[in-house]
């Protein structure tokens, strides 16, 4: 029997207050009438209106979404392949280097990743813009995807794939019909992770973007450096709302899926 | 054939976009700054044949690294990054452990919700979470307003643009990385061990120190590294919350590159930062391996 004491209640209350109060305050103050962000002057949604008029922000948001969609999709494909290679391909020449290249970007400081990619792009004379940010984001996000997917691949039984191959599937069919459905949840969470990493990234994007392509974090960072602004509060609130809804929806969907799976398994067990 | 394509695609991608860029940084760190485009020399000219390659290697030296040791800005920045990362990790552990511990003690039906509440901030933009503190910590900010109102202080405290704000920012953004591994270690713990200890005459506090803490050690170690490693190269938090006296190596590298446009020195700073990071990364890997061995 676990004892849940007043100490536990206090720790959780204070802990979650610390984690959530700053964001709640930010959301509340985005509805503040006053330009002075620390003085409350009545409820207003005017900063949201001004934000929607601000073309620079809207453009940056569009660039960010484009980059995130392309890079997370590419990263998911490459990361899933990499995970498959790590878990299933067995021995091959240069395997150690390969797994090193998968794990190193995870711990590499962003400033170094950004710097090194920029030097590469300049070295080969590639103009910096949306393409270079996509290449950069794909590279570091694919490593995160491959870690997520390989942990799922490790835990599932190889004999299912072998059975499919024995029954006459080509390796590609076996992957599509057996492996992919089983690792699909991991692939989807890998994609989501890659998408948010790309959406969030300031440092690598700052190094690899050019004047033609500014992402939202770069825009926010340069605005925020000058101090707190109500427009940024409004923008932050929108982003927090999207993430909250997304995470809650995703967890509800996965909960329902696991319930359905349980029901199916019980039905199968009953015959 | 198919296997070769499967292996080669991610392999070549990482080779071209991770390994080669890294080698370029290494190479430029050994070059000299020059008033040219790109601003460093020598340039490798493969068309010049063997003698050009020889000249190229002859032009490389450790001058930038020597420069880093002569200007005390750099070693002070490394030292202060190390100090800030160490103190923030300790603070995150002190705050994170009770939270993880209490989560593991909560009723099982509550745990998924609590877990989601810890993970949720991780999905929201890092930049926004750091920015949120700017409005709270400033001189006219909510924290000062609150403290003035309670009468605890007579004058507003200067927190924003000092190292204190950097500590708060780091602990705040990296706290989930501390909580999650500790929680997953504590959750697996068998409670009957504690009961046995108490039956054998252990007090509750000593049972905590003798059983709970050792059993959560791998979680504590993992959490500490997960906070310490990214903090060392942190750029966003010191540049938004810290002041001009806040020295962190990520910030120095950024300024060296964007403001001073000294690419060779920026590259040398990056190489040294990596060398410093290798030790904690290897220790972290070892800890993970130990944990896997214990479990399986």
Structure description:
The complex is a heterodimer of chains A (271) and B (296). Chain A has a domain at 55-234: MetI-like (MetI-like fold, Orthogonal Bundle). By secondary structure, chain A is an all-alpha fold. Chain A has helices at residues 6-29, 46-53, 55-88, 95-107, 110-123, 130-155, 158-166, 171-200, 203-208, 216-224, 230-270. With 296 residues, chain B is mainly α. Chain B is built from 14 helices and two strands. Chain B has a two-stranded antiparallel sheet. The longest helix of chain B is centred in the first third of the chain and has 34 residues, at 72-105. Classes of the chains: A mainly alpha (271), B mainly alpha (296). The interface between A and B is large, with 81 and 81 residues.
Structural class estimated from helices and strands of chain A: mainly alpha
Uncertain parts of chain A: none
Query: What is Rg of chain B?
Result: 25 Å
CATH superfamily of chain B: MetI-like
Can you count the helices of chain A? 11
CATH class of the domain at 55-234 in chain A: Mainly Alpha
**DSSP strand content of chain B:** under 5%
Succession of helices and strands of chain B: HEEHHHHHHHHHHHHH
Counted beta strands of chain A: 0
| Fraction of helical residues of chain A | over 70%
> Helix/strand-derived class of chain B?
mainly alpha
- What is the 3D shape of chain A? globular
Q: Looking at CATH, which topology of chain B would you report?
A: MetI-like fold
What's the helix and strand layout?
The complex is a heterodimer of chains A (about 270) and B (about 300).
Chain A lengths: L5 H24 L16 H8 L1 H34 L6 H13 L2 H14 L6 H26 L2 H9 L4 H30 L2 H6 L7 H9 L5 H41 L1
Chain B lengths: L1 H28 L2 E2 L6 E2 L7 H10 L4 H8 L1 H34 L5 H13 L2 H12 L4 H9 L12 H25 L4 H8 L4 H12 L1 H16 L3 H5 L8 H10 L4 H33 L1
Antiparallel strand pairs in B: 1-2
Helix pairs in contact in B: 1-14, 3-14, 4-8, 4-11, 5-8, 6-8, 8-11, 9-10, 11-14, 13-14
